[in-house]
């Protein structure tokens, strides 16, 4: 996965915006104003993804390229190293899982608006 593939995939999900709230180097994707993934725009080596706490630990134990979230709540976030032999299909799935986890926390009316 490269940064353009990452961007295209994130932006293809309903209700997603691309922002730079932490400065011009940190690319952030939000769904309905809630953060679900971020990366360094110039050095695309890792992405931070929201994750169910139990699954987060499981992924860290299973994959060398999955670490506790860098500069994030380590219980709820993982940092995934892009070039750590993790297949792209898993990266895409984990991005979608992060998105879905955030969507699940949104009010029912907002969730329903994303399905329209």
Automatic annotation (TrEMBL):
The keyword Iron-sulfur does not apply. GO terms for molecular function: DNA binding. Keywords: DNA-binding. Signal peptide: none annotated. SUPFAM superfamilies: YjbR-like. It comes from the Bacteria. Pfam families: YjbR. This is MmcQ/YjbR family DNA-binding protein.
């Amino acid at each position: 996965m490269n940064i353009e593939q990452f961007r295209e995939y994130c932006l293809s999900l309903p209700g997603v915006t691309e922002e730079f709230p932490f400065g011009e180097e940190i690319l952030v994707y939000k769904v309905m104003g809630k953060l679900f993934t971020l990366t360094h725009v110039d050095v695309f080596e890792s992405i931070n993804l929201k994750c169910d706490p139990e699954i987060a630990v499981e992924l860290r134990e299973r994959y060398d390229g999955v670490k506790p979230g860098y500069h994030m709540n380590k219980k709820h976030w993982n940092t995934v190293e892009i070039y750590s032999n993790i297949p792209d299909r898993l990266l895409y799935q984990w991005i979608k899982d992060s998105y879905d986890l955030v969507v699940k926390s949104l009010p029912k009316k907002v969730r329903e608006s994303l399905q329209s």
